[in-house]
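Tutorial sheet, problem 5. The two components below are modelled jointly, 596 residues in total.
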Amino acid sequence: MLMTGDQYIESLRKLNTRVYMFGEKIDNWVDHPIIRPSINCLAMTYELAKDPQYADLMTAKSNLTGQTINRFAHLHQSTDDLKKKVKMQRLLGQKTASCFQRCVGMDAFNAVFSTTYEIDQKCGTNYHKNFTEYLKYVQENDLTVDGAMTDAKGDRGLSPSQQKDPDVFVHIVERRADGIVVKGVKVHQTGSINSHEHLVMPTMALSEADKDFAVSFSCPSDAPGLFMVYGRQSCDTRKLEDGADVDLGNRKFGGQEALVVFDNVFVPNENIYLCGEAEFAGVMVERFAGYHRQSYGGCKVGVGDVVIGAAALAADYNGASKASHVKDKLIEMTHLNETLYCCGIACSSEGYPTAAGNYQIDLLLANVCKQNVTRFPYEIVRLAEDIAGGLMVTMPSEKDFKSDLVCGENGETLGDICNKYFVGSAVCSTEDRMRILRFLENICLGSSAVGYRTESMHGAGSPQAQRIMIARQGNIESKKQLAKNIAGIK
Amino acid sequence: MPTREPLHCGVRFCGGCNPRYERIKALEELKSRLNGKASFSFAEEGASYDVLLVIGGCPNCCASYEQYEAVRGAIKVWDESHIEGASSKIEILLMEDETSGLEKNL
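Model answer (structure tokens):
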């Protein structure tokens, strides 16, 4: 049953999710002005699924139940599904100009589904059935799930079992007949507070000595012992200002990351998908990372579409749109953005079926995609700032523009002065010019820069992680042979 | 004089990830051109349509529509300039209906 956006928001109120921010417990986090924009983003993933204009991308037919489900809960059944995933993400990036948070769950579903199948084949475990039943529950109830991978990691030079405090990696602290007890944290968790459930995976490949850290499971976001600490963002307290609107740049939407703490959380056997089979930790991580690196070829492109549009509007409003260098910069931004999209579509088109039946992306191309994402959005915002001009960071506040305070010799108000001197082209009002510049400020260095810049750098793995995968998949020996053949070397 | 039944069109949009034109406006334009001679509703599985109108936002026109039943096939549109052609195709189908109706009466 597909939920509407409003039903999704109401469903969050029914959870007893424990949330902390600025040193306090936040009881009504659903309506908190700092958190709500990120909930609005997720609500959009529900709203668009109900709209016939977008349903072809936003929904799919479940291979498990035969029902129409939100694509975010879907197991990819073809390369067409993989491509539609990327297109859906582009669409949502366009509609929110933010991270809409639901991809981590989708990528986790597909990674855990195929990995559990292979674990069961080798180890005779029951994880795949466990997971399939869980995913049916998610699909039937149209739930949002946080795919939780990144551990705190402590000393990066030490393995999990060598850490002074083992809790820096999520691990099993007790094995019972009916389940396990886990402890530790997952960091940088996108949309975790806004999720109904958490699907936890290991953070990296593990050896037998680290088998207690080889654990995958699901639990409700309000499970006893589970709580979250909201990650603050640049300029976040602007959202707390009275009547905040123009100065926010993006009043309605935003991203969210949080620290998720598992403080001795009990997980029943039916929700366990990996429990000590260390050799499969790396497989699960690699698959999740691969899907998630594909994802960035969609979501960041959609946000990029909005950034390019905003830069073009800023040029119009500044009266600079006819300048050849401005036109050329917009071309360059478009070229960079569409290159990312090419990568997302390419790694999807070259996908293939796993043993479990769902489709996997081409790993080399997905890593190339994400490697480009670590660079191109930075260049796109650099060009956007270039076109916008310094005013995007030096402009007085919205309150100044709207102030009735008399300050001029002839009785002009502060608002009169601001509106007089910040006027641009006749095609726009001063307020509209201010709005587009504040949007660019927000995406380039405000709260949305978390999603568009640093998340592009480190989300789904930092640049070096992709370079390791590119090195493994690059087929250098075959390329050497090609060169030998041409050069006549035997 | 018998009233002609409007042609029943099921409408399926692509997902709209990067449409080159306003797809909804294009549908409204088509409705306006046909002036009530065809009825339009969003395609649903299990329903039967005379014809399926697939509206894509770009030449890829990637909307899935195999799951829908349309007796007289699908008409694809992926550019504003296709509206006139889609309108003509529907008019032709309506004329064929009239002709076949006359033949039956004779």
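Marking note: The beta strands of chain B are 7-13, 38-42, 48-49, 51-55, 69-70, 74-77. Full credit if you identified this.
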